[in-house]
Write a structure and sequence with these properties.
5-stranded parallel β-sheet; alpha/beta; 6-stranded mixed β-sheet; globular; Barwin-like endoglucanases; Dimethylsulfoxide Reductase, domain 2; Rossmann fold
């Protein structure tokens, strides 16, 4: 997030797109509710009529996968109406003139033809956001899990740059992270293209720096993503370690995923429970849970926080870092002689420019948000206040493109996926609570009542949901939250493997799967017919 969580009740106009925040981030969402109570306008763009839509001033029910068209239409209106922040653009951006000429072709009427959102509502959203004293954008996986996920994010950045809604209180581009330490994982270098601190692996200076620190030769090239790794299983990749991820339930195209893992000579899983993925492993190392370890986590607002061990791990369970260090030592690698999480964190701080001013003792109370470049630096709750770290903000010329898979006569229904309030991710943890199971005992397919009648579906009865990759049996729930022609389900339940249906394409830059768009067909069935 460019802005801290404390800023969430300060915008005068809030634009939420691709984020079901009241279910996926319910605590943070209370701050938006406070802002609304104080008079802020809320614009919500989402294919489903989610909870945020019910409290919005303007709801934009976009067709799944059409976010870029909506954002291009809004940019057109801002340019056409002369609402561009000329001073901000001149002082802090580049490629602005080319961008403003580019968006002239994307009228609200053009965007309506793709998104299904009335042109007048697109215009209203653009006017409110551009005229806002403090306009803030919030998004989550509904923006990124598309073949055009990078385009979508860059389109949001374009809106902020052309209006100057960044670098100030109550503004910004704010991606809400999906799990508690996703930000921290990236900070630590759990990315194929960066060392810790987002230092590119392709930079020879970084290569020299980390070779000296680690005492080992490191490659001057990007690593591979999990998509590439799974595609290479049984061929270039013969063994794999999966740490803390239930891959066969969360990854797209489950059949492909299972075949890939079965083709390995060795599969090792590190986890706190025997997940569906762990059941496929040749070796399972029991990991300690968060309350059983010392360590750090960095949250969605870049706040670095200490974990403090409350109890000892059960049985043979150990912290992840100890398991990985013991493996490395047995494989003959040097430099894995850490004695504590403190040692590891302090090493990271010595190598990461965003953490350089921190150390284990300084983060005791969790008050610092990176970047903290110097020892006496107070931290940076709000990014880009005085400028962009890489110079000027660069406008990107984005064009709309269809999802990898569109509906047709064989698969005439859009499927979109997401999360539910009562279940955390794949229920690896929440599914073991009887209380949670009472609140959400099973997965259902949300279908508009008119569609249910047309397709012969009955509320509470079973349906067969099929895509080009597989099919599942699932109970029907009729609801006006789903628009006509679109159905919704989550991937929380392993016995209803929605990921068996998804996986039609990936973003070419990040290789993020298009989990939010899938063409399916739906028909009534009896339980157990598949």
């Amino acid at each position: 997030m460019s802005n801290p969580l404390a800023d969430m009740d300060k915008p005068t106009v809030i634009f939420c797109i691709g984020t079901n925040m009241t279910e996926a981030h319910p605590v943070a969402a209370t701050r938006l509710k406070k802002a609304i109570a104080n008079g802020a306008k809320l614009i919500v763009a989402d294919p489903r009529r989610i909870g945020l839509a019910d409290i919005s001033d303007l709801y934009l029910p976009i067709r799944v996968g059409s976010d870029a068209a909506l954002l291009l239409g809004m940019a057109h209106v801002i340019q056409r109406e002369g609402l561009v922040n000329d001073v901000f653009m001149a002082d802090r951006t580049t490629e602005g003139e080319t961008f403003l000429e580019h968006v002239k072709q994307f009228t609200p009427e053009w965007a309506e033809g793709i998104t299904g959102v009335p042109a007048a509502d697109i215009e209203q959203a653009a006017l409110w956001y551009a005229q806002a004293e403090r306009g803030a954008i919030y998004y989550t996986l509904g923006i990124t899990e598309h073949i055009c996920g990078v385009d979508n994010v860059q389109s949001l950045c374009n809106l902020a740059l052309m209006t100057g809604n960044i670098g100030r209180e109550g503004t910004g581009i704010n991606p809400m992270r999906g799990q508690n330490n996703i930000q921290g994982a990236g900070d630590m270098g759990a990315l194929p293209n960066n060392y810790p601190g987002f230092q590119p692996v392709t930079d020879p200076k970084n290569q020299e720096k980390f070779e000296k620190a680690w005492g080992i030769k490191v490659d001057l090239e990007k690593g591979i993503t999990k998509v590439t790794a799974l595609d290479s299983c049984g061929d270039a990749i013969r063994a794999m370690i999966i740490d803390g991820e239930n891959t066969v339930v969360t990854d797209p195209n489950r059949d492909h995923c299972e075949k890939a893992l079965k083709s390995l000579d060795l599969l090792v899983v590190i986890d706190i429970f025997l997940t569906d993925t762990a059941k496929m492993a040749d070796v399972v190392f029991p990991a300690a849970a968060w309350g059983e370890v010392d360590g750090t986590q960095t949250n969605t607002e870049r706040r670095v926080q200490r974990l403090r061990k409350a109890i000892d791990p059960p049985g043979e369970a150990k912290p992840d870092w100890q398991i990985l260090q013991m493996l490395a030592q047995r494989m003959g690698f040097q430099g894995f002689e850490h004695e504590s999480a403190k040692d590891i964190f302090n090493e990271v701080c010595s190598l990461s420019p965003t953490y350089y001013g921190l150390d284990w003792d300084r983060i005791e109370h969790g008050e610092y948000q990176w970047p903290v470049p110097e020892k006496n630096h107070p931290g940076t709750p709000r990014l880009h206040e005085d400028g962009f770290i890489n110079g000027r903000g660069i406008f990107k010329l984005i064009n709309y493109r269809d999802p990898a898979e569109v509906i047709d006569d064989d698969y005439p229904v859009w499927l979109t996926t997401g999360r539910r309030l009562q279940a955390y991710h794949t229920r690896t943890q929440t599914g073991r609570s009887a209380g949670i199971d009472y609140l959400l005992p099973e997965e259902v397919l949300e279908v508009h009542p008119d569609d249910a009648a047309k397709w012969g579906l009955v509320d509470g009865e079973w349906a067969e949901l099929a895509s080009r990759r597989g099919k599942v049996e699932i109970k029907v729930r009729t609801t006006n939250r789903s628009p006509k022609g679109t159905v919704f389900a989550s991937f929380s339940f392993a016995d209803v493997p929605i990921n068996a249906l998804t996986g039609s394409g990936y973003d070419p830059v990040t290789q993020t799967a298009e989990l939010k768009v899938c063409a399916v067909r739906v028909k009534p069935c009896k339980k157990g017919v598949l």
